[in-house]
């Protein structure tokens, strides 16, 4: 299955659901957003060459993945919206980072998955932490 990643904008406290993949390629050596995030075509290239390279090389219909990469790159580009990439990071479900952004009341504004409900991703904003996680 793999790690589930979320792109995090620390400037405006928003998140974008990415799911599985080598999404760390969107970051630079300092684990901050790469300057490539400011260009839709660069984001697409990262997705094609680093994130979904295996899927594309082994697909019966690689065009599906190439088209989907354009769609996802557009969503990420819109999410970044010209923000300084140093304010962008990744959270994942392997450590406490996703829990921390929820605890800090970050809001999910998008997802690469069409079936994800933003209401479900933002459930933490509508309930108290006691109800959601049983935290005293």
Fold topology:
Blueprint: E1 5-9, E2 14-19, H1 40-51, H2 53-57, H3 62-80, E3 88-92, H4 97-103, E4 107-111, H5 118-121, H6 123-126, H7 129-133
Parallel strand pairs: 2-4
Antiparallel strand pairs: 1-2, 1-3
Helix pairs in contact: 1-3
Report helical residue fraction.
40-55%
Q: What coarse outline follows from CA principal-axis ratios?
A: globular
Spans of at least 5 consecutive residues with low confidence: none
Protein structure class: alpha+beta
Determine the mean pLDDT: 91
How many strands in all? 4
Taking the alpha carbons of the first and last residues, their distance comes to 31 Å
The whole-angstrom Rg is 15 Å
Structure description:
- This protein has 136 residues and is α+β, with helices and mostly antiparallel strands.
- It has one domain (5-133).
- It has seven helices and four strands, in the order E-E-H-H-H-E-H-E-H-H-H.
- It has a four-stranded mixed sheet with strand order 3-1-2-4, sandwiched between helices.
- A hairpin with a 4-residue loop joins strand 1 and strand 2.
- Helix 1 packs across helix 3.
- The mean pLDDT is 91.
Short structural summary:
The chain has helices at 40-51, 53-57, 62-80, 97-103, 118-121, 123-126, 129-133; strands at residues 5-9, 14-19, 88-92, 107-111. The protein is globular and about 45 Å long.
Key phrases:
four-stranded mixed β-sheet; 7 helices; alpha+beta; globular; 136 residues
